[in-house]
Amino acid sequence: MSDDVRQLEQLRMQTRAWLEENIPQDWRAAMTGTQDQAFLQFQRNWMQSLVSAGLATSHWHAGWPGGGRSLAEQIVIVEELARADAPRLILYFISLYHAAMTLMEWGTPEQKNKHLPAILAGEVWCQGFSEPNAGSDLASLKTRAVRDGDHYIVDGQKIWSTLGQHADYCLLLVRTDASGPKQAGITFLLMDMRSEGVEVRPIRQITGDEEFAEIFLTGVRIPVANRLGEEGQGWRIAQTTLNSERGLTILELSERLSHSRWRLLEALGAGADGQLADDQLRREAVDVFIQIDALSAMVKDMMSRLVAGQDVGGTASMVKLFYAQVLRSFTALGLRSLPAALRQQPFTLGGGHETGNWSFDYMNSFMWTIAGGSNEIQRNIISERVLAMPREKYA
Fold first, then answer.
1. How far apart are CA 263 and CA 98, in angstroms?
2. Helix/strand number for the chain, H first, E second
3. Residues 181, 243: Cα–Cα separation, whole Å
4. 10 Cβ contact partners less than 8 Å away, ≥ 6 residues apart
């Protein structure tokens, strides 16, 4: 066994032991049907525990608590978090990945010193990218920022901002120039959500959850000192934001799905030996489990190539597209398991997408046909970058 492999195994055992000791007992029951304040406090406490253990920021640069880990080490930590069914830090996902990594790459010393320690202390960020008419075609955004001395005056609307109603700051894309190519006129701002003229409205989903919010901006004054990069660099900077969590996130999601097979078997009425008496259900469950195994193999292959420093091209789009399909198959079979599953039940916050509440999980699975780039966008990427088909021409 090489020293590198031995060190990774040591990290795995240390992480596993810490999680066994520190994951809050019965956290799923505590977070099922809970109210906002209880959820927020739980997330804050769990965030501080993970930060103290260096498990929340392994992807951060060296010099920050827990940072400087190799990709191979980050993979081990993510795998163990999923294996242990640890609560997901959904309140801090944007903060830890999108905001932190974008600030590290593009922030001024003043911006880094202000916000990175604050994120470690619990500062919550949201993302102000998508608009009602600018989702997959993000470059069509119309939220306008006009320079007024040392400030920008911003007017517009953002939508699908994850947990924006709880955020302290927002990663905001605005249009500062409409005269040239649409990507060239976008600027990246850091907006204080307590600014005058900011109105946040939670969006109640079909699941009953309010995971997303829309943000209305009316004459909001944002200091020029809160700009990342130069005017017109927003599109380029946004690529750093969007790429900051790709790979590790889909690894965690696929690992959580793989470790949740028992939930489906239990719902389908499997015996103590894990066997299903109903032949049709057994065939369908086997088909779903084969899909999960295929997904896991695809993800592990992609991560191995990333560790080796190889270009994965359109593989990430293939994996993301397949994950959305497998999650749908998994939750759809669970939904059929029991008549009780047809009733709306309290949902579990921070429990991933396989909570065992099959009606909630199934409805929530549709989100993954859009989140992170719609299935249609992923297919375009695959056709162009993997199959080398001609790029689509637009009128």
1. 31
2. 14, 8
3. 23
4. none
Per-residue pLDDT tens digits for 111-128? 999 999 999 999 999 999
For 3-25, how does the pLDDT look when each residue is reduced to its tens digit (9 = 90+)?
888 999 999 999 999 999 999 99
DSSP tag of 367: G
Which of helix, strand or coil describes residue 41? helix
pTM > 0.70: yes
Letter string b/e over residues 214-251, b meaning 16 or more CB atoms within 10 A of that residue's CB: bbebeebbbeeebbbbebbbbbebbebbeebbbbbebb
Report the length, in residues, of the chain: 395
Tell me which DSSP letter residue 180 carries: S
Long-range CB pairs of 202-208, under 8 A, 24+ apart, other chains included:
202/164, 202/165, 203/159, 203/160, 205/363, 206/363, 207/347, 207/360, 207/363, 207/364, 208/344, 208/347, 208/360
Residue 217 dihedral angles phi and psi, to the nearest 5°: -120, 120
Task: Find, among 317, 295, 294, 305, the residue nearest to 386 by Cα.
Answer: 317
Going 270 to 276 to 282 to 286, the CA torsion angle's sign is positive
Q: How far apart are the first and last CA of the chain?
A: 58
- Sign of the CA dihedral with 358 first, then 363, 365, and 371 last: negative
Q: Which two structure tokens, joined as six digits, stand for 394?
A: 């637009």
What secondary structure does DSSP assign to 183-219, as a single string? GGGEEEEEEETTSTTEEEEEE--TTS---EEEEEEEE
DSSP per-residue string spanning 142-159: --EEEEETTEEEEEEEEE
Residues 6+ apart with CB under 8 A from 6: none
d(CA 187, CA 183): 9
Q: How confident is the model at residue 135 (pLDDT cuts 50, 70, 90)?
A: confident
Helix (H, G, I), strand (E, B) or coil at 322: helix
Catalogue the active-site residues: 245
DSSP 246: T
Report d(CA 62, CA 69) in Å as an integer: 8
